[in-house]
Design a protein that fits this description.
single chain; 72 residues; alpha+beta; 3-stranded antiparallel beta sheet; 2 helices; 19% helix; 14% strand; binds iron/sulfur cluster
């Protein structure tokens, strides 16, 4: 599973980070860092909860393991 990060949609609410700071890394202005996020086994629940918490839909959950990550 990985999270596709759509940086252009991020408005810096930091809700993802508040749900799972070990998964969602922000820059000094509170915006999600670029690049898709590979979610380690066992972290899927926290990652899904954090992604769903984003009010801008900037975090897209991709559960297929055979799809190459897409750079945002
Ligand atoms: S919750 Fe969404 S808008 Fe807020 S920092 Fe995370 S990705 Fe960006």
């Amino acid at each position: 599973m990985h999270i596709i990060v759509h940086n252009a949609k991020c408005h810096g609410h930091a809700r993802c980070w508040s749900q799972a700071p070990e998964i969602f890394k922000l820059d000094e202005d509170g915006y999600i860092l670029p690049g898709n996020i590979d979610v380690a086994a066992g972290n899927e629940f926290c990652a899904s909860r954090g992604a769903r918490s984003c009010p801008e839909r900037a975090l897209e959950i991709n559960r297929s393991s055979d799809t190459a990550p897409v750079m945002a």
